[in-house]
What we know:
By secondary structure, the chain is an alpha+beta fold. The chain has helices spanning 7-14, 22-30, 52-73, 78-100; strands spanning 34-39, 42-50. The chain is built from 4 helices and 2 strands, in the order H-H-E-E-H-H.
Amino acid sequence: MGHPSSRRQLADALDIDKSHLVGPIDQLEARALLSRIRNPSDRRRNQITLTPAGQALVDELRPVARRSQQGFLEALSAAEQRTLIELLQRVLAANDAARLT
């Protein structure tokens, strides 16, 4: 299981407004894929954690996502794929830096 995260941390990681996470979190909790518990240091906040079933699903889907990405990138040579990944990482890093300022 991953470490507990707040809704704000999840929203920041996904680059979306935290208000858009309520429904998906409710659905995932109903399916027992994550749990919400009160933050012991701030009872107004919840800590969100993957359950063992949620982690198992992530572990199952990760190779599926990799295969899908590989199929998408097959049109590029290995060198072009590396270049694309490096460029996308730079764009993401710049976006993350801009959000923090």
